[in-house]
Amino acid sequence: MRRECVLAVQIGRIARHTRSALSIGYALHWTSPRLFNLNAPQVDVTFFSFYNCQQLSNIPKTILTSFFVCLPKILFMKDFTSLPLFKKSIHTGLNNVICKFRNYNSLATDKVLVVSKLSRFEFEKKKAKNLTEKQLVESLKQRGTDVEKLVRHHDLHKKFEENVVNTFKNMGISVKVVNRYQYTEDDIEDADVVIPIGGDGTFLLAASMIFDNKKPVVGLNSDPNRSEGYLCLPKKYSTNIRNAVERLNSGNFKWLMRSRIRTTLLVCDEKKITGRYLHDNESDQFRRQKDSIVTGETTKVLPCLALNEVFMGETLSARVSHLQLRLNGSTENTNLKCSGICISTGTGSTSWHMSINRLPVQNVAELLRLLDIDPTEGKDSLATVLADIYNKNLVFNSDDKRMAYTIRELISAAVWPDPKGIKPRGFAKKIEIKSNCFDASLVIDGGVSYQFNDGTTALLEIMPEDALRTVIIND
């Protein structure tokens, strides 16, 4: 009986190691008066839960080995097998556990953290704290804002969010809703999955607080008629939340580890580096635990990982940016005069990277005319087809370990660039940029900005441990 007692303790340890809300099996807890030198054996079968198979890999192998080796011996002991309830429960439980082990993609959704979009109407209300809603509406009308449109889109989003939350609750899922000002690392740690509701901007906000590749992020598009939502689940799931959750729970999806850019300031005179959040009021900033870095060291890793892109250039767009560029560990600097440099991930290749490099149909048509081809610019014209092929090739995989750099409006005249030969667009695994600018910024995902003035040097690279864990649902 000593061995069986040890097994019961080990089962309890497994249950404690695997806390989550989705029960996928049964463990047994039993006591016997024999342990206390009593005469008659007594079996008390109660239900424990095996949870979240993602976490089972953290359980010591000795515990799992003992569980699967010793349990069959327990199952066929006379005292145990005489109990129909026990036999049914434990066999059902083992079947579920084994199935879940095979399905390593299973995603627990017991505790969900919903990150709510900050609508334009909510943003305006935060800016005008001293005004009542009626006064705010009048003020916006006087400014020329289409208030009805503003309110309509706000209500649409909130109605969608309410529907999502109610669906989760009806499925027995614990839900916590936070906005950008309430979003904390403690909330992330406590949740099984983070679900931003809104569009790509809300998804980027949610991702910006996650600094490893462990916590899953699954986005829902709250306005699929107006927003593409490239980072969110396909639009059809916006009207069928339950189906999306069931597919995640059953493992009917693939993990997508989206590469992110780590930015390290190799040289910086600033003693305290603090990010400025571009979408907030100056008096009401979105604060993170890692807002600023105070260190005596020369090298400083910025507390933000770029899911889309990093931009470096003069803050005033009309001013020329003077930058020095090194690619893939080269010791040779290329001196540039341009309108800034955009460094993109595969995820960001559908965003700003695409907008900068997109080839318009008009340009293709003009090139064809130079070849004495008289093309039209209609939907099915040669110019349209060629432009579409070119633009689609700008997009690369979200898990690609390379970064795409684009030198915006590179001045190529006289002595610039120095030396000659740099391509205005290309790929690299390591990029080093030194600023010779007057009043420049380093902007991450269009949301947080750091000073990037003369002498400051930034190293950009992609590390596997910085990836963002997302999903692609199997259709």
Automatic annotation (TrEMBL):
One Gene Ontology term from the biological process aspect of the record: NADP+ biosynthetic process
Listed InterPro entries: ATP-NAD_kinase_N (IPR017438), ATP-NAD_kinase_PpnK-typ_C (IPR017437), NAD/diacylglycerol_kinase_sf (IPR016064), NADK (IPR002504)
Xref: Pfam families: NAD_kinase
GO MF, one annotated term: NAD+ kinase activity
EC number(s) reported in the record: 2.7.1.23
GO cellular component term of the entry, any: mitochondrion
Keywords for this protein: Kinase, NAD, NADP, Transferase
Primary enzyme class: transferase
Gene3D superfamilies xref list: Probable inorganic polyphosphate/atp-NAD kinase, domain 1, Probable inorganic polyphosphate/atp-NAD kinase, domain 2
PANTHER family: NAD KINASE 2, MITOCHONDRIAL (PTHR13158:SF5), PTHR13158
Protein family membership: Belongs to the NAD kinase family.
Protein name stated in the entry: NAD(+) kinase
